[in-house]
Predict the structure.
Amino acid sequence: MSKIPYRITLSEEEIPKAWYNVRADMKTDHRPMLNPGTMKPVIESDLTPVFCTELVKQELNVKDRFIEIPEEVREYYKMFRPSPLYRAYALEKALGTPAKIYYKFEGGNTSGSHKLNSAITQAYYAKQQGLKGVTTETGAGQWGTALSMACNYMGLDCKIFMVKVSYEQKPYRKAVMETYGASIIASPSNTTNIGRKMLADHPDSTGSLGTAISEAVEVAVSTEGYRYVLGSVLNQVLLHQSVIGLESKIAMEKIDEYPDIVIGCAGGGSNLGGLMSAFMADKLSGKAKPYFIAVEPASCPSMTRGRFAYDFCDTGMVTPLAKMYTLGATFIPSSNHAGGLRYHGMSPILSQLYHDGYIDEARAVEQTSVFEAAKLFAKAEGILPAPESAHAIRVSIDEALKCKETGESKTILFGLSGTGYFDLSAYMAYNSGTMTDYIPTDEDLQTGFDMIPKIPGIQ
Amino acid sequence: MSKIPYRITLSEEEIPKAWYNVRADMKTDHRPMLNPGTMKPVIESDLTPVFCTELVKQELNVKDRFIEIPEEVREYYKMFRPSPLYRAYALEKALGTPAKIYYKFEGGNTSGSHKLNSAITQAYYAKQQGLKGVTTETGAGQWGTALSMACNYMGLDCKIFMVKVSYEQKPYRKAVMETYGASIIASPSNTTNIGRKMLADHPDSTGSLGTAISEAVEVAVSTEGYRYVLGSVLNQVLLHQSVIGLESKIAMEKIDEYPDIVIGCAGGGSNLGGLMSAFMADKLSGKAKPYFIAVEPASCPSMTRGRFAYDFCDTGMVTPLAKMYTLGATFIPSSNHAGGLRYHGMSPILSQLYHDGYIDEARAVEQTSVFEAAKLFAKAEGILPAPESAHAIRVSIDEALKCKETGESKTILFGLSGTGYFDLSAYMAYNSGTMTDYIPTDEDLQTGFDMIPKIPGIQ
């Protein structure tokens, strides 16, 4: 065939008609979530007071490999999907590498990231259930922006607890969410019991994702007609995000390519889980052996240095417990501009796949080296990446440079999950040389590990 | 055929191979620019000290209908083009209109607007000429961002005079330009004679595009190996931007559509000039009769209330004079968030086409009604528009609502020239109800008109 284009774009009709549920293929399913009251595996009725009923069914679905995407959701997807797969010709040239680098760009919508894929889906099911609204938390603001857009489409009220430090540092993110009609509350807030307790104990708290989750859940379960929605970690979210990987595989097939290495940043796991989906299916069935790398910040190293244990998903310890790689629910990472990667835990699915060796490697990278890569990428490819996505860029560049040494022409696929338009203060810090790195000591981490619950007979 | 998709995307190979030069088809060419020293029509040697030589040739080219796009420029175009043509199904539904609304979205690149089309081209020719760098001005920052990306690609130095009010209000725009390696100077500055004079006369000046142009030109002509580049107004810029209209026509042909109405915002004219190109060709040759509407802010109404006269292109009165619709080179528009539409003049090509009736209508709209339209559009279509582009949205909505009254199913095409990611303070002002409108009085305008030079025998 002729030269591979810069952008491989599928037609609207090629948007997948079903999501891929990796759990149906996993050799070992992840351990069940536990009800924090009984410490027994959660059942549907434990979760329906918190989450939309259809989403609970998806959360617990271990048998269906494919779950149909509702026609109305697909119509909304068509407003911004299929997303393009880029061949990084300019980056390859800048690196002088024989590697072939591809990236799936999910930032080409107003929310600026892949989060919209799940936000629209969750808002759709909330609407179908006849709810009035939903609550959630947001850190960097990508998820909050996506959810505010989705709720606007569906005519739902949307209450967003925004980690206070982001609320104060990102007024423009807040402005976008408000333009779409969402209510934004700085967390910790005095609107919830958990927020008030946190403020009493730590009046100067700048907040954390874990606390914001606790507040959002509290409001959802105590308000008639509301449920809580979450932008990562959960099985349902990885399910919705599988559209990224499914599209990527179709696009690569069109140009007769298949990735040797698949690289994604991992905070709660929604981006990597989505990107790898179709390729993990091949790996689990033995059809292919792509090498998967999860990239995380050295400042919040849940996979590379965390424990594989049952832990709470939130700081307030009101959510079910999940078996996952965790730094402890009270771990509050040092200030790091990649707000979307500051979560203490990791998707149970990704945790299990990593534990079992299907995700081959987790790699922690430092912030300044991430921004060095971000800038190199921006200057070569023209797209300003989100700090989160730039973690994947860092490792993709490193792998491409290895190819340069060995002369191998590997095919690398990474996820460019979002743009950096709302992270320019971080770029300013990098440009001015004031950005620093932070790696927690073993002692720092021990404080969090000490808070991981010890459950007799379970861990 | 089956249902028209949400996005009509061309293949890379369908990017035009030549720009369209509308001057070759105009019934009456625009009046020549005048050398401000001699008041005689400019010739190539008048302009080459200021502009790149090849660009001067394009500026003065009145005979070639098509000018080939260099292969290297097309390669850069492929990194972000073809841009998608959207069918605004959601907006149509929100309005309940029988009109069919299409928009060409030029904001899907990191510069956030159509400006990159000409920036890459101008930087390419500067590089071909062996220059060290270029100077320019930027208001809202769209052009400066595009040029900083383009100069980065070509390895050129880039000095940008940024209107002081934007420099102070848009630190993130500045951060993007600096990430791409440009030097940003707040204008008026003490680095030029014109800037120093302006500061001496008006120490508190927050700057204007006209002054920033004067400063950038001064530096270009007085620095070895530098030339000045401009993001709008000039013939060469409209030429490069013709790629927008050429692609739009190809895309519409694919779905068997043709616009009844073509709508674009017009500040200096590059967006509207680009969008209308291929359709204006049809109108000039008598093949079709699309109705063209130029939209401008009521606060800076050069076409609707300005004079059609020879005037300077800059406040410092050092540039050639152009016959155009103008409010006077000293006209400084009141604070208006659509920074890209605050220019006192208008492209000579568009001015002539409007004067001769080929652009059917110019319409001035007020800021709050523009943001009302911007928000309606964002909520329906999911894309947060730039304030400039939202002027075109306002009029497109108004035309679609007229169709609702009359029952006509007109086909409307408008230019969504950019995104609003860097204009969120304006959205915040609108959301909080503090945004106000401003319409200059006739007396306000007279002050500017009084400064339009009176040239014996010419006007």
Observations:
- The interface with chain A takes residues 5-7, 9, 11-12, 78-80, 90, 108-110, 112, 149, 152-153, 171-172, 175-176, 178-181, 375, 378-379, 381-384, 419, 421-422, 424-425, 427-428, 431 of chain B (CB under 8 Å).
- The mean pLDDT of chain B is 95.
- The longest strand of chain B covers residues 157-163.
- DSSP finds 18 helices and 15 strands in chain B.
